[in-house]
Design the sequence.
């Protein structure tokens, strides 16, 4: 699977929007963009995923660049519970060898009260 | 609680001992994954089952590691002759499809003295 690049850490004030960037310049046409987050002392949890169009769910929004070489996870109002490590992952939707996720080191988000 | 469960949550062992971890996936999920996570890193894929068949293994899974899923339900991960480098969090995840959302358990933290 193609790799992603994320900033090591970011900070946000509570109740403000957060934009978490991810670069994936080698993305292929069949790669889905997944976001997971990992709260302290817990296993990762799914946040959102998309292919080409922007996506919204109850947790977040995913904005995908037109050339698909980058994407941004948007948390509309950060809360203290959103403090976590956020992972941007590419998953090939065609090759069956794409069963595993490559997590990388992710972005550690700190939310300031 | 109908999520993924793992047992034990913590394990301390001496170098050279064998350890076994158990994962109980969400009941209708036929796909099960094992990951290893060391401090400051994202989870790394170890192996993957579809029902009882082990379909994929990472090069990280040395000969000392073995995983089973005998009836396509729970899975075990055994590490023989543990080494200090095996100290890590071992995460289990399950899903209903190859490219769908993975649901993670809380992990088993292994410390090898």
Sequence:
């Amino acid at each position: 699977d193609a790799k992603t690049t994320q900033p090591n850490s970011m900070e946000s004030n509570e109740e403000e929007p957060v934009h978490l960037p991810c670069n994936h310049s080698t993305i292929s046409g069949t790669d889905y963009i997944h976001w997971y987050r990992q709260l302290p002392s817990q296993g990762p949890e799914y946040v959102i995923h998309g292919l080409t169009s922007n996506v919204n769910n109850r947790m977040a929004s995913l904005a995908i660049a037109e050339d698909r070489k980058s994407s941004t996870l948007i948390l509309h109002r950060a809360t203290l519970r959103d403090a976590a490590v956020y992972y941007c992952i590419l998953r090939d939707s065609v090759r069956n060898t794409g069963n595993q996720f490559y997590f990388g080191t992710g972005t550690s988000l700190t939310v300031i009260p | 609680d109908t999520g993924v469960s793992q047992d034990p949550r913590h394990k301390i062992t001496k170098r050279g001992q064998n350890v076994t971890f158990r994962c109980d996936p969400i009941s209708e999920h036929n796909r099960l994954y094992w990951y290893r996570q060391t401090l400051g890193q994202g989870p790394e894929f170890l192996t993957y089952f579809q029902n009882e068949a082990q379909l994929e293994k990472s090069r990280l899974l040395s000969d000392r590691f073995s995983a089973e899923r005998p009836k396509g339900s729970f899975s075990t991960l055994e590490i023989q002759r543990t080494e200090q480098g095996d100290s890590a969090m071992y995460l289990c995840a399950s899903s209903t499809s190859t490219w769908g959302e993975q649901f993670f358990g809380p992990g088993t933290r292994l410390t090898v003295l």
Notes: Chain A touches chain B at residues 32, 36, 41-46, 49, 85, 87, 91, 93, 96-106 (CB under 8 Å). The mean pLDDT of chain A is 90. The radius of gyration of chain A is 13 Å.
